[in-house]
Amino acid sequence: AAMCRPTKLVDSKDRSSERAKLRSDVVSAMASLQARIAAAGGESKLFTNMATASGSNVRTGIVTDNLPTEYTDLTALLRMVDSEDIGQTALIEFMALAAVASLVAPRQRSQLDMNSIVFGLFAAVDDNCDGQLTAAEGEGLCRVLQAFDLLPASAVRELSASGGAIDL
User: Fold this and answer.
1) In sequence order, what E strands does 49-120 have?
2) Measured distance CA(89)–CA(148) in Å, rounded
3) Which of 28, 32, 104, 113 is 20 to 30 A from 38, alpha carbon to alpha carbon?
């Protein structure tokens, strides 16, 4: 399935061969997500609060267009990880987004480390913590990595050709 990207997340003028610079508004939204996670008492609690606020539930996920205006700062991020482009964010997508946010906008700012980002995302989507991702989990991880320009299209094609399962 092709990835639908509503906006450019990366400032292409400031790009080195190893690191891309995320747009300042994306970093700001991720910092806001981090603050909301801390205030709610964790990722799962914030997800539950947002799903409920959108008139949905944890199983169905967050309905982006139904969120109250207090969540406006997060709607663009939610749309970026909406894997099926249906206006809903599932728990696995939200957890992957939270993992990216914790690495991109940590409470103490440091250089982005690609290995830390990928490892954090991998852990966030590895439901049974066995160090392997199923095809579905791998596809979710790839979508999030692509949304933030952290995974080249050639790697996605390679994973698709191998059935999508990924070992850490």
Assistant:
1) 62-63, 88-89
2) 16
3) 113
> How far apart are the C-alpha atoms of 63 and 52, rounded to whole Å?
9
Question: 35 φ, ψ to 5°?
Answer: -65, -40
Q: How far apart, in Å, are the Cα atoms of 131 and each of 47, 75, 118, 146, 152?
A: 24, 31, 13, 21, 22
CA dihedral 35, 39, 43, 48 (to 10 degrees): -130
Own/partner pairs, 52-60, CB within 8 angstroms, 24+ separation = 56/88, 58/91, 60/88
Question: Which two three-digit tokens encode residue 69?
Answer: 């205006």
Q: Is the dihedral of CA 15, 29, 43, 93 positive or negative?
A: negative
On average, the pLDDT of the chain sits at 75
Of 80 and 21, the one with more pLDDT: 80
Q: How many CB atoms lie within 10 A of CB 62?
A: 31
Where does the pLDDT of residue 84 fall: very low under 50, low under 70, confident under 90, or very high at 90 and above?
confident
Half-sphere exposure of 131 (CA within 13 A, CB side): 1
Partners of residue 133 on adjacent β-strands:
166
